[in-house]
Specification:
The chain is α+β, with helices and mostly antiparallel strands. The protein is 41% helix and 26% strand. It has 6 helices and 7 strands. The strands form 2 sheets. It has a 4-stranded antiparallel beta sheet, with helices on both faces. Strands 5-6-7 form a 3-stranded antiparallel beta sheet, with helices on one face. The longest helix is centred in the C-terminal third of the chain and has 18 residues, at 149-166.
């Protein structure tokens, strides 16, 4: 189900998300959340650049309007850095708490994703909601289907292509395309 900007604002209010998310940050969400996805929560990363870390019923999504050489172009979202971690691929999620800020570490079959400078009080709520989603009956069924022997070989193939990407032998676009093919997305 698609989400509107007003629904995002209402969610911020209802969930008592106290972070200073700007209109610019929040206006990104309705364009990115897919029609068959439910936005569960979000949290702002106060690192450089600032970004929004979102949880849906299908994925963890990091969005940042970083306009520099590292920016990635995703269709109409030119200049938008987007990191997507499908829930079915997540092996673990944990947090490291400091006094004001903390770090979320999400591990999937290919790598660790580290999201820093998250407000400590919001971080624990976010991590708990991710764990709850991972333990939902629907995710358990999806993970079991994904971890069949044929898909394990796909994961090995993705790891090989990731190594090629890390060695600058293939481009990020080539890696993403091959990953989609191997995962049948």
């Amino acid at each position: 189900m698609s989400v509107t900007y007003n629904e995002v604002l209402q969610m911020k209010k209802e969930q008592k998300i106290t972070l200073p998310l700007t209109k610019k940050d929040l206006k990104l969400l309705p364009d990115i959340i897919e029609d068959d996805e439910d936005l569960i929560t979000f949290i702002q990363s106060n690192g450089k650049p600032q970004g929004v870390l979102c949880l849906t019923n299908k994925r963890v999504l990091y969005l940042s309007k970083e306009l520099n050489a590292k920016s990635i172009s995703f269709g109409k979202h030119v200049g938008l850095t987007e990191i997507t971690i499908l829930l079915r691929n997540i092996n673990s999620v944990r947090s490291k708490q400091q006094v004001l800020y903390g770090t979320a570490i999400i591990t999937d079959s290919a790598q660790d994703y580290t999201f820093e400078k998250l407000t400590a009080s919001e971080l624990q709520r976010f991590v708990n909601l991710v764990k709850k989603q991972l333990n939902s009956p629907m995710q358990t069924k999806t993970q079991q289907a994904f971890n069949t022997p044929s898909n394990i070989s796909s994961i090995d193939e993705i790891k090989k292509y990731k190594e090629l990407l890390d060695l600058d032998i293939i481009t990020k676009e080539e890696f993403d395309q091959k990953k989609k093919e191997l995962l049948n997305l």
